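Hey, I was hoping to borrow your eyes for a little while. I'm sending you its amino acid sequence along with the backbone structure tokens. Take your time with it, there's no hurry, and the full record follows here.
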Amino acid sequence: MIKGQEYQASLEQRVLGFIQENQLVSGQHCLLVAVSGGPDSVCLLHILVKLREELGIRLHIAHLNHQLRGAESEADAHYASDLAHRLDIPATIEQRDVKAYQAQHHLSLEEAAREVRYTFLAQVAKSIGAKRVAVGHTVDDHIETILMHLIRGTGTRGLRGLQPSSRWQSSGSSLAIIRPLLPVSRRETADYCHNHQLMPRIDVSNLSLSPLRNRIRHQLLPLLESYNPRVAEALLRTARIASDDLAFMDKEITRLWGKTVQKQGNTVTLDKEGFLELPSALKRHLLRTCIEKLIGNLKDIESRHIEEIMDALTKPAGKRLSLPEGLTFAIEYDKYLLGSDPAALSPFPILGAELPLELPGETILPGWRVEATIRAPEAIKDDASGYIKGSFEGAKPLQNLNLPLSFKGEGDKGGEVGKQSYKAYFDLNKTGNKLLVRPRQPGDRFQPLGMSQPKKLGEFMIDSKIPSAWRQRIPLVCSPQHILWVVGWRIDERVKVTDTTKQILCLEFKRD
């Protein structure tokens, strides 16, 4: 075997070993291969053709004409079509208007091309039943990506550069990406194509200094090599160390998930006490992990966003930060909320407009069913005795009607809020029979049970540590004169049951 043949055989074996080591095509029956027509993707395709029997896969080619280089783009598409025909591999070749997409979504040309390309690949993969797409990223792309992340201000995650496999997700599309050529250099793919007379296409736009990646490739890397001829090795070593560090932190995240952090719908909840005890490095990693689970990627999340959250951790409850992709980081009394709608975690449904209560009778509110009964004091003594527990034992039943038993559960302390029903008793002569339910309004005041003077409702909610995201959803039972009950927390002192009460109004809020 001549020297050149030994070299090519070695390259194919290296790619095979890398695929097997990282299980890139494990259990895959159909593999989509992204072929631009350049040396990297053509080399990748040719090697996969030789390895397909050993890997147990069948191949499908995908080529997208971005319509950015006129006749050159058309020629690339023809080349990909001819290559697929010569190799007897099915192909999907389409074109998309990247510039129109760029204008519509206000992106850079590079960002628009990437989103359009991966959306296309995801669609093709779904249509042919492929679970993964192979792309021709090389070790040179890996090094350039590390530098690009450094320039933009990355965390440890960005120092990893490209990974053997990753997942792209955007606007409902999801795609598993594998990179079999990651241990191979760009020079090696060019030599491979030359030795196999594949005649790949050359994209002259790669010589332009407009894209950041091209400036890194043609200007920054040569400059860095003048300082350290082995700078590429140094960057790869840094990436390996970062990967090891992140692998350790990923294990810690798995341990913490469900204990310190939980995901509920489109919101992640972080236990404040447990989160604050974590080392700073783990806090940052956990925040990135939470964001990635919420939006599927970290494309628009920069280190500065994570640092803004870190700086806000000790701010008072009620503090909110706006993040990319419509996310909000909200600080509550005992937890942090991260999501597109933190208010959705409130145990209370949205009330909307004020609605009158049927007295006596049943009233249906959004998310609630309210039962109102009017009873004599003697008729509820047995009911009241069920609430006489702990420190309240021995007290008179009518007095107990005004204590935490004014609703089911110890909600006055905020500990059991979210139960399915809340009950309170009132002196009907003091409440009147024209009551309504509404959300809070600016300037609201009421006199909490046990207090001698009214106070602002907002101050009461703060003192009671009611999360700010809940406050507008908490039902308020009101008479024409004032608030009678902050449902789930406290009744008004002026309508409490006393020994002189003749008729008792019982209100019970039940979740619908």
